[in-house]
């Protein structure tokens, strides 16, 4: 059955992570991000670790396989900390990873937890020097009296070693929890956003940042919304957007003023009064905002839907896609088990024709904008045979359940896909379940 | 994140109001409302568009007895889902909607409380969303109670007239008084918002206060026992316009209310407010509100420890202006009285902040409407 994007059929490629059903808290994946070429795939987890996978050179003998992703580097990015002044523990969970565009042989990425952003340099070392004059091979210093000749050390090949070293630590700039970071297209600055403020940093300077948005009211009693996500425009270095818990998105132009509290554009869709409920505020809170690659559109994810906005039209989105509308009648139960607070992310494919987001029961959804089709797929160990084609899934909202359909009440709300990523150029997707990373690719015909 | 949690596990609490479901007659529904197993669509309640006809389900006599009942037995540990996973679409009779709102409120408060013990500290976003649910539930509850009261009042008026016609005794003042007394005793509501509340049953309010004191270990509550119970809820109105109500309610007791300590996370300025009544938009104040109580500010030097409750205050004092008794006594595991008293102070600021400014509710925000919540909040407190 043809899926979105023409005759795209998604096949299982790989799964990373433990098979255990007993999930260690530290292994829970908290962010997934491809780099700009798609060669590297980074994941962050609740334990503060970053694992980077690298796509191997294409396997010539098996052309139907695209290359596999194998572990490239693993390092501990953040450690748990304690704020003594406020008696608060600062979680080491990696909230976001963002890659910098590559400028030299090394790769750079920004990773952040609730309070601190770090710039990591990931570099390869495949040669080592040999033949020092003053040192033995094991590092001990020679007695200078024994040296009778001089030689030039030479570089000899060695096993590839990937080193990750923290180059910058951007700390102490956020009172509230950081939810987003975004690298500017100027490749010199980036923004970090917490619940009430957005700061602009220079990648070289760690001891200061500019505050560009501050929505903290003078009287905290008047607080009505918080910032939930922020992103720079992919091409315009002066433009960024931030979403709020009230379901609005504000586009700001940094040329207008130093403090961008006054938005340039406000994107808001009026609420449908017939859908009003106790939980209206929760489900309208935007959990993720992403610009399209071409910079013309942006996508927002709230609890039940994905909306695509044209930057030129503020009063309503151009497209709204329901992710799991069958949950609308279950909001009470979802509130009870806290699932209603889940923050789903969303992503575009390389040419902005398809968008993807996650759901429950390890389902994820793709919406083809051009063909106006959508599909529900599942990331599960049962469908994990190499190149096994994923069968579309269907959820039965009520009434008679057809064969192969799943009823809403059978959904496992502990199995949620919050983080997904799409390769910037190819049809390869990375889908994170609780502690496993699934990689799917479309079948090359 | 509940990784190992059972499928669709519910938030089981000891202090669920609906577990004392005898009080809220008609509020009980099928149990086992697991998301995975319930066929029902557990519908959300539509706040402003839904009107349910039918007789009122609240029996004022029951309400009158409720606090004593609840004080005397342990809260059963039933899952909190009972009233939420309803079968059938749409809401049930009005009493049940109010009961649902109650359980939602208690659940929200418990979630707010549990946020404090989470790793990583309090998340502003989550608490904001919880406060919205709390506010929505409270709005619905007030609305429902007021409607029910109005219906009962109409019904009783009709009955009274019928009785009069039957008895041919238009001067049967006793009957009317009895009705009025019962009403006031039961839910502390009057028909006319402008009328002062009738004197409450002193035994009842005293018992309430004693219970409150013993549960909270909070000395400042004891002084409030001097005053009728509804006055607690009206305190924000009282503070705002003492002139209007001074005939009936001396404002002395207000001074004994808790302090609110607010720590600004950015400037590290600690503000201690004597009364907690900083908020100015009490919607039932006819006169401009009185200026806030003097606040003491002190700069926190390094080394001063701002504990969790204070950080919570920084934000939640703003959002959660429920009544004092509203504060999370639905949780069964309170061992730290200082935590309790801080939470009291959070919610001690009166109700005005959470009520919407819609005209409809501004009418409802009469003293009597607020006071009517006394019964169920006492129920929460008992746990």
From TrEMBL, chain A:
The keyword Membrane does not apply. The keyword Chaperone does not apply. InterPro entries: PP2A_PR55, PP2A_PR55_CS, WD40/YVTN_repeat-like_dom_sf, WD40_repeat_dom_sf, WD40_rpt. SMART domains: WD40. GO terms for molecular function: protein phosphatase regulator activity. GO terms for cellular component: protein phosphatase type 2A complex. Keywords: Repeat, WD repeat. Belongs to the phosphatase 2A regulatory subunit B family. PP2A consists of a common heterodimeric core enzyme, composed of a 36 kDa catalytic subunit (subunit C) and a 65 kDa constant regulatory subunit (PR65 or subunit A), that associates with a variety of regulatory subunits. This is Serine/threonine-protein phosphatase 2A 55 kDa regulatory subunit B.
Automatic annotation (TrEMBL), chain B:
InterPro entries: IER (IPR008653). Residues 70-84, 179-198 have a biased composition (Basic and acidic residues). Residues 14-34, 67-98, 179-206 are annotated as: Disordered. It comes from the Eukaryota. Pfam families: IER (PF05760). Belongs to the IER family. This is Immediate early response gene 5-like protein.
């Amino acid at each position: 059955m043809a899926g979105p994007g023409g005759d795209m059929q998604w096949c299982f490629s790989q799964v990373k992570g433990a098979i255990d059903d007993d999930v260690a808290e530290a292994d829970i994946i908290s962010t997934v991000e491809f780099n700009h070429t798609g060669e590297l795939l980074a994941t962050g987890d609740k334990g503060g670790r970053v694992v980077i996978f690298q796509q191997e050179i294409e396997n010539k003998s098996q052309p139907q396989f695209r290359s596999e992703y194998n572990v490239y580097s693993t390092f501990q990015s953040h450690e748990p900390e304690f704020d003594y002044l406020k008696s608060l523990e600062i979680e080491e969970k990696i909230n976001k990873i963002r890659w910098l565009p590559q400028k030299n042989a090394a790769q750079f990425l920004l990773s952040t937890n609730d309070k601190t952003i770090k710039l990591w340099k990931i570099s390869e070392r495949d040669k080592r020097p040999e033949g020092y004059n003053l040192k033995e091979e094991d590092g001990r210093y020679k007695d200078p009296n024994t040296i009778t000749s001089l030689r030039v050390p030479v570089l000899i090949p060695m096993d590839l070693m990937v080193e990750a070293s923290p180059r910058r630590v951007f700390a102490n700039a956020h009172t509230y929890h950081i939810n987003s970071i975004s690298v500017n297209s100027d490749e010199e600055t980036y923004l970090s956003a917490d619940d009430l403020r957005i700061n602009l940093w220079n990648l070289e300077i760690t001891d200061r940042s500019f505050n560009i948005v501050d929505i903290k009211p003078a009287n905290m009693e008047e607080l009505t919304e918080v910032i939930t996500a922020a992103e720079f425009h992919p091409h315009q270095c002066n433009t960024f957007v931030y979403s709020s818990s009230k379901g609005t998105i504000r586009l700001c132009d940094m040329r207008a003023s130093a403090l961008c509290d006054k938005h340039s554009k406000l994107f808001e869709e009026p609420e449908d009064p017939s859908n009003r409920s106790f939980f209206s505020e929760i489900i309208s809170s935007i959990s993720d905002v992403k610009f399209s690659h071409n910079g013309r559109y942006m996508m927002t994810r709230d609890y039940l839907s994905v909306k695509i906005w044209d930057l030129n039209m503020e009063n309503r989105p151009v497209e709204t896609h329901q992710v799991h509308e069958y949950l609308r009648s279950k909001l009470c139960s979802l509130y009870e088990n806290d699932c209603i607070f889940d923050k789903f992310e969303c992503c575009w494919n390389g040419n902005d024709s398809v968008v993807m987001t996650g759901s429950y029961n390890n389902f994820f959804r793709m919406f083809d904008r051009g063909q106006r089709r959508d599909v529900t797929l599942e990331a599960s160990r049962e469908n994990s045979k190499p190149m096994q084609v994923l069968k579309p899934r269907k959820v039965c909202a009520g009434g008679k359940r057809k064969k192969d359909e799943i009823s809403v009440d059978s959904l496992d709300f502990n199995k949620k896909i919050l983080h997904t990523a799409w390769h910037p150029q190819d049809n390869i997707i990375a889908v994170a379940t609780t502690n496993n990373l699934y990689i799917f690719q479309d079948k090359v015909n | 994140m509940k990784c190992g949690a059972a499928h669709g596990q519910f938030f089981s609490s000891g202090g669920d109001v609906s577990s004392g479901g005898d009080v809220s007659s008609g509020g009980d529904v099928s149990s086992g409302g697991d998301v995975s197993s319930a066929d029902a669509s557990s519908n959300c309640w539509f706040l402003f568009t839904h009107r349910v006809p039918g007789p009122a389900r609240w029996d004022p006599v029951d309400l009158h007895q409720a606090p004593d009942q609840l004080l005397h037995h342990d809260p059963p540990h039933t899952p909190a889902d009972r009233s939420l996973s309803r079968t059938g679409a749409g809401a049930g009779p009005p009493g049940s909607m109010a009961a649902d709102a109650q359980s939602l409120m208690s659940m929200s408060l418990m979630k707010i409380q549990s946020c404090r013990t989470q790793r990583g500290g309090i998340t502003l976003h989550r608490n904001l969303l919880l406060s919205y649910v709390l506010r929505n539930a409270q709005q619905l509850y007030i609305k429902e109670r007021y409607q029910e009261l109005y219906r009962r009042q109409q019904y009783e008026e009709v009955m009274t007239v019928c009785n009069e016609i039957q008895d041919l005794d238009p001067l049967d003042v006793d009957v009317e008084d009895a009705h009025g007394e019962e009403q006031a005793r039961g839910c502390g509501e009057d028909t006319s918002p402008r009328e002062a509340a009738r004197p409450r049953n002193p035994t009842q309010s005293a018992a309430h206060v004693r219970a409150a004191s013993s549960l909270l270990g909070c000395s400042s509550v004891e002084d409030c026992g001097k005053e009728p119970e509804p006055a607690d809820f009206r305190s924000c109105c009282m503070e705002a316009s003492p002139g209007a109500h001074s005939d009936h309610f001396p404002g002395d007791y207000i001074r004994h209310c808790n302090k609110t300590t607010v720590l600004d996370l950015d400037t590290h300025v600690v503000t201690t407010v004597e009364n907690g009544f900083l908020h100015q938009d009490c919607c039932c104040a006819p006169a401009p509100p009185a200026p806030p109580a003097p606040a003491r500010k002190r700069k926190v030097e390094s080394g001063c420890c701002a504990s969790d409750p204070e950080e919570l205050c920084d934000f939640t004092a703003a959002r959660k202006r429920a009544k004092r008794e509203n504060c999370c006594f639905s949780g069964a595991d309170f061992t730290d009285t200082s935590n309790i008293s801080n939470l009291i102070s959070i919610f001690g600021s009166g109700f005005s902040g959470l009520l919407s400014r819609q005209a409809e509710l501004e009418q409802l925000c009469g003293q009597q409407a607020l006071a009517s919540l006394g019964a169920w909040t006492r129920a929460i407190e008992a746990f």
